[in-house]
Specification:
The chain is an alpha+beta fold. The chain contains 26 helices and 24 strands.
Length: 844
């Protein structure tokens, strides 16, 4: 990426809105309030948004003078009505326009020198001065507000969140030449599929300067700090939810006619060393994976009141037109190979998910016959639900084998790592089940866990790529993916995850089962009663339905099918379903090879100064404890304190040390005492660390061709690595030795010492805790009075000795206070005459 493109920063990071009778004045400035821009919005025209941007910057004095002149010329004085941090856009329903202002933000992550914020609050400001007359206007406004801006919307002034780190750091081949008369900088175009305020920016994107435009994404973003013996490694998880064919669980299934699947989420896992701020100097890695509904034309009948409605294919697509359009988009964005990790059920008593599995196999088989072997779509099938029901099943071990093989195929992005050559990720792993929620999230965690091992190895943090469960490192990653899964499940399904990673590890079956029941009921209730209104809110927010140009109200439409499928399926060659220009770039992504940029004109180069101020905030007073570097979750404070280390030497501080945590439910699942007094394995032993046997269905002859074995070199051994559990677990194996923990022997805990301990505990409580004077019944009477008994006149923690002050100093202090309150003493007439005589002599 070019230096200008990398360092582009929006000037407008603070906004104040003033109003007069005829005009709204939007004043934007940088964080230090040294550079200003001003917008003027006409309030008289309700049907049209009349906005004027003078396309120049102002200093603080120039901006103040400009507003003062306007205030003097207007009939009514200018009034401040709102302030915020960015302009999200404008929206219109049936009457006038509304201005959407981000009023509150929260710093949630840093990628190099780029600060990422979460939207915490917004305000809708009606532009026109005329009152709203139509009742449906208020109803549409309420629908629009149902998409809560404070719920997982993110933006940055200097970093394009719609693209991956690999794309952002890619050097563009052709940069348009800037004009010679003005200073210019280069900014890349956002990926509209993950841009959630595209519709809101449409009325003004051609009328205002780029400094006003901020790109919003929706989904999930979180960052943690892994401390490896003083070395800080940031792990960032970014989930970009697609704005195309967006909706709720049962309302949006499969693909639309343009090849966009429902619930498509791109997940990027960034791991970088924060010892240096600039991305050009620090070592960083990135890995991208994808989830999305099965790319076929299918739906479920919502008329039947049941938790799992039957699945039906809406029409047969023998040439894979819709799926081909979807995979063509993936090849453009990610390159080859595209690996499908399908987790749907294959054998069912009543055919449901297996209908989709059979159709997807046929479609991929047809599309692959026109592709080269190295560019073919790879299909990996794993019936996760069926395998998990087997006795002694280890689903995660099977997923580990698949994940490792897939990552070796696609690779990951690496830059500036010592001893490790720079490389790029070619291809993507696309995971799906039916809902793309529970099973998909666990599979993505497994892929992310193996990717993290390779990323840390590339950074020189670990000697190998293998990571183990019950370590702080994996626990941090598991917490990130659990939070991501809950967030996506709430947005799409209406409840948190039902089946989590721990459910498939079978470490706490009782609590996991009870949680599964509660979340299943919550999801069923939300899908039955609130999904319809939520879907309408998405349609209005994203501009799928635009009330000012429609004749039928949104709530009167029998279905929104034609809103999301306005464009008929594109007609392509059935044999050449991928364009030649895309094939010529493979395995590299076409979008990176032909990266699009545009010129931004400015009076001067502000980006370097703006980027520095946004990170270090030198112009404002900041508390040390409130700095982002101090508040971010880290492996020692947030994760290691919750686990019990095996030993207490220096190696226990490592985030890669396996913690010895044993739950009673694990103990009960591990052994069962027989009548003879011997214990036998129950199949869910916590000591099993290897894989289980494969699903016998996965080796059938009819599936062997389509499963596309990755390569013989990439195959991972399927042998089980099972450690035999001990025949008997004693108390000493569950609990640590008191001497190694507290430094005292168990014999030291005698009745006399316990009595002395209680005495000191009572002493401490009476001294340190203040009495409750509001409670009259407490009857508090201090029994112990503490006073200083030292003969030295020094301060102590209980009282302070006041300094000695002589009489002359006290008199002078009183004089200074008196002068400050009442002024100086009265001047005599002689002194006044002398002063007037002196002044007259000066003017002669």
């Amino acid at each position: 990426m070019s230096e200008a493109c990398q360092n582009f920063v929006n000037i407008v990071q603070k906004i104040t809105i003033y109003e007069t009778k005829e005009t709204l004045y939007v004043v934007g400035s940088d964080e230090t309030e040294q550079i200003f821009r001003i917008l003027e919005i006409n309030r008289n025209d309700r049907q049209k948004l009349v906005i004027q941007d003078l396309m120049r910057t102002y200093t603080m004095e120039e901006a103040r003078t400009y507003l003062q002149k306007i205030s003097q010329n207007e009939k009514r004085k200018m009034k401040k009505i709102a302030s915020g941090y960015s302009l999200a856009g404008f929206v219109r329903f049936t009457e006038g326009y509304y201005l959407i202002l981000v009023t509150s933000r929260l710093k949630v992550a840093m990628i190099g020198s780029h600060v990422i914020y979460k939207v915490e609050g917004t305000a809708m400001i009606y532009v026109s001065t005329e009152k709203v007359t139509r009742p449906e206007e208020l109803r549409y406004a309420k629908l629009f507000e149902n998409v809560d801006f404070s719920n997982n919307f993110y933006f940055s002034y200097s970093y394009d969140l719609t693209h991956s780190l690999q794309y952002n750091q890619t050097q563009a081949a052709n940069i348009p030449p800037p004009p010679e008369s003005v200073h210019s900088e280069v900014r890349q175009r956002p990926l509209e599929q993950f841009l959630w305020n595209k519709y809101l920016l449409e009325p003004v994107k051609e009328q205002i300067h780029d400094d006003w435009i901020v790109y919003l994404i929706h989904g999930f973003l979180s960052q943690v700090n892994m401390i490896v013996f003083g070395r800080h490694i940031y792990i960032t998880l970014i989930s970009r939810r697609s704005s195309q064919y967006a909706g709720t669980r049962f309302m949006k299934r499969g693909c639309n006619t343009m090849g966009y699947p429902a619930n498509e989420v791109e997940t990027e896992q960034i791991v970088h060393d924060v010892s240096q701020t600039s991305l050009d100097a620090t070592a960083f890695t990135s890995f991208v994976q994808l989830r999305g509904s099965i790319p076929l034309f299918w739906s479920q009948d919502l008329a039947k009141a049941m938790s799992k409605p039957p699945i039906s294919l809406d029409f047969t697509d023998p040439y894979g037109g819709i799926a081909g359009t979807h995979f063509r988009n993936l090849l453009r964005r990610y390159g080859a190979p595209v690996i499908i990790l399908s987790l749907v059920k294959r054998r069912e008593r009543r055919r449901r998910e297996s209908v989709l599995w059979d159709e997807l196999v046929k479609t991929v088989t047809y599309l692959n016959q026109f592709m080269k072997d190295e560019h073919k779509i790879r299909y990996v099938a794993f019936d996760m639900a069926r395998s998990n029901r087997k006795k002694g099943a280890n689903v995660l071990a099977h997923l580990d084998d698949i994940s490792e093989s897939c990552i070796k195929r696609t690779g990951f992005y690496v830059s500036n790592c010592l001893g490790y050559a720079d490389r790029k990720q070619h291809g993507v792993i696309r995971t799906n089940c039916v809902d793309c929620l529970d099973r998909t999230n666990t599979a993505q965690f497994s892929v992310g866990k193996h990717a993290l091992g390779h990323q840390l190895h590339a950074l020189g943090v670990t000697p190998s790529t293998e990571l183990f469960f019950d370590t702080d490192c994996v626990s941090m990653l598991e917490a990130l993916y659990e939070d991501q899964g809950d967030t996506i499940a709430l947005q799409y399904g209406g409840s948190n995850l039902v089946h989590r990673v721990q459910s498939y590890r079978k470490t706490d079956l009782l609590s996991a089962h009870s949680n599964d029941i509660l979340q299943t009921l919550a999801r069923y209730y939300k899908n039955s009663f609130s999904d319809s209104e939520k879907q309408q809110a998405y349609n209005v927010f994203l501009g799928i339905y635009r009330p000012f140009r429609e004749t039928i109200a949104l709530w009167d439409l029998p279905t929104d099918y034609y809103l999301h499928n306005r464009t008929p399926p594109a007609k392509v060659d059935y044999c050449q379903w991928v364009a030649q220009k895309v094939i010529a770039c493979l395995p590299q992504p076409f979008n990176e090879v032909e990266k699009e940029l545009h010129i931004v004109h400015r009076e001067a180069h502000f980006s370097i100064r703006l980027g520095f101020n946004s990170v270090y905030r030198v112009m404002e007073l900041t508390l040390f404890d409130s700095l982002f570097y101090m508040t971010i979750r880290n492996s020692i404070k947030s994760f290691m304190s919750k686990s019990i280390p095996i030993d207490y030497d220096k190696h226990a501080l490592s985030p890669f040390e396996v913690r010895k945590t044993v739950r009673w439910t694990q103990l009960l699942n591990t052994t069962q005492t027989t009548p003879s007094g011997q214990s036998k394995d129950m199949g869910n032993s916590i000591f099993h660390t290897g894989t289980t046997t494969e699903d016998p269905d996965s080796s059938s002859s009819e599936e062997s061709d389509i499963e596309c074995k990755l390569t013989s070199d990439d195959e991972v051994s399927k042998k089980d690595e099972i450690r035999e559990p001990p025949a008997k677990i004693t108390f000493h194996e569950l609990m640590e030795n008191p001497f190694s923990t507290y430094g005292v022997d168990s014999d030291y805990v005698c009745p006399a010492n316990i009595k002395m301990y209680k005495h000191y505990e009572k002493f401490y409580n009476q001294v340190t805790q203040p009495p409750d004077y509001t409670n009259q019944k407490s009857g508090f009477t201090p029994q112990i009075m503490i006073s200083q008994k030292s003969i030295l006149p020094l301060d102590s923690e209980y009282e302070a000795t006041p300094p000695s002050v002589n009489k002359e100093t006290k008199c002078f202090y009183k004089y200074v206070v008196t002068v400050g309150l009442h002024g100086t003493c009265k001047i005599s007439p002689a002194s006044q005459a002398t002063y007037h005589q002196y002044v007259q002599q000066l003017h002669q």
